[in-house]
Amino acid sequence: MGFVRGVHKVSDVLDKVMEAVIVFMLLAMVAVTGAQVVCRLLNHALAWSEELTRYLLIWSSMLGAGCVYKHSGHISIEVLQNAMPKPVKKAMKIIVQALCMILFAAIVVYGVQYYQRQGTQVSAAMKVPMRFVYLAIPIGCGSMFVHALDQFLGLVTGRDGSPAAPEKADVSADDTAKKEVQA
């Protein structure tokens, strides 16, 4: 059980760190794009701004995919799953998480191999090694693997790995408001 709690804690910490990094990247994109607009108004374009913004978008997308996976926010079709009895539904969720872990692990392995092959290629404007841009793929999928493992272990051990449904939070808030009005 210590391993399961450890994985859950790592997943939670990873999610918070990724959220902070993504916010920083989005703010940097806004600042760079704003600086580019101002510089163009002054007839002096920044040669590197578009490239930097593109690379920040790539990184924030890959890291954001992990955060969305953690909170079960990716699109899914659950018609078949919802039509099944509870034990079958749980088994299907476990299989889906296992398949996702296999996919994420494969992407990490091939992403690292691709990263290693990008030895001398550099970006056009900033002269940044492209391997650092491509590194977003294995890091993003690595975070999704950790979150999938957390959800998988949660399902196997009986701790449901899915986040609390927003409807439940709204119901409890409504109940609290009704109690306050009645008091």
Helix/strand/pairing category: mainly alpha
Number of domains: 1
Dominant shape: elongated
**Low-confidence runs:** 161-181
How would you classify the quaternary structure? single chain
CA radius of gyration: 21 Å
- Give the number of helices: 7
Strand content: under 5%
The helix content, as a percent range, equals: over 70%
Total count of strands: 0
The biggest sheet, with number of strands, parallel, antiparallel or mixed sense and barrel status, is: none
What integer is the average pLDDT? 88
Encode the helix/strand succession as letters.
Answer: HHHHHHH
| Amino- and carboxy-terminal Cα gap | 43 Å
Description:
The protein is built from 7 helices and no strands. The chain has one domain. The radius of gyration is 21 Å and the shape is elongated. The chain has helices at 2-41, 49-70, 79-82, 86-117, 131-134, 136-157, 166-182. Helices cover 77% and strands 0% of the residues. Residues 161-181 have low confidence and may be disordered. By secondary structure, it is an all-alpha fold. Helix 1 (2-41) packs antiparallel against helix 2 (49-70), helix 2 packs parallel to helix 6 (136-157) and helix 4 (86-117) runs antiparallel to helix 6 (136-157).
